[in-house]
Amino acid sequence: MKILSLDQSTVATGWAYFSSNSLVQHGVIHINSKNKALPKWIMMMNDICNLIDAYCPNIVIIEDTIMQKSTNTLKELTRLQGALIWYCFLKKIEVTTMYPSHWRKVIDLPVKRGMKRVELKSIAKEFVETIYGQQCITDDESDAICIGMAYIKEYLQENKEINYE
C-alpha cells in the first residue's frame, strides 16, 4: 500500500509518502509567488502531478477545502483540488478528501473549538515531532503527515475493506 497525503495550498504544499503504513518521505513544494506567468494553482498542480508520478501511490489523500478569508484563495484552492482529483482519475489512482477537523479528531489531537490556525498547526507539528522524533519539519509537512496517519488509522487499522487493485 502506497499513500501520498497532501496539505495543499497555492504557495507551499506539504506532502507525505507512506508505504506499508510507514512514513517513508515528506517535504514541501514551494511556488514562487512573484512569477505571474501562470496562476499559482496551475504551477502547484504541475509540481504535485510530478510528485504523484514519482511515487505512483495507490491512493492520494487531499485535505479538503474549507472557508477562507479571501474568496480568491478559496477559488484557487478548489480549482487545485478539482484538478488533482481529475489527474488522479486519469491515472486510475484512488483519491479522497479529508476535512482538517476530521483528521485532527481521528488521530486524537488535543484541539478545541475556536482555536486559531497558528495554534492548530503548532499542535500538529509537536505531535509529529513526538511520534517520529523529527525536528525542524514545517507545519505544512506535519499536517500532511497527520493526514496520512489519520487515513491509515481510520481505514487500514480498523479493518475496513478497501480494494486497491
Short description:
By secondary structure, this protein is an alpha/beta fold.
Would you kindly provide a written description of the structure presented here, covering whatever features stand out?
The protein has 165 residues and is α/β, with parallel strands linked by helices. Helix content is 47%, strand content 20%. The protein is built from 5 helices and 5 strands, in the order βββαβαβααα. The chain has helices at residues 40-55, 71-90, 100-106, 117-132, 139-156, and strands spanning 2-7, 12-19, 22-30, 59-63, 94-98. The protein has a 5-stranded mixed sheet. A hairpin with a 4-residue loop joins β1 (2-7) and β2 (12-19). The radius of gyration is 15 Å and the shape is globular.
Secondary structure: elements and pairs:
Layout: E1 2-7, E2 12-19, E3 22-30, H1 40-55, E4 59-63, H2 71-90, E5 94-98, H3 100-106, H4 117-132, H5 139-156
Parallel strand pairs: 1-4, 4-5
Antiparallel strand pairs: 1-2, 2-3
Helix pairs in contact: 1-2, 3-5, 4-5
Features:
single chain; 165 residues; alpha/beta; 5 helices; globular; disordered C terminus
Amount of beta strand:
15-25%
Could you tell me the number of beta strands? 5
- Strand order, main sheet: write it out: 3-2-1-4-5
Cα distance spanning the termini: 10 Å
User: Which bin fits the share of residues in helices?
Assistant: 40-55%
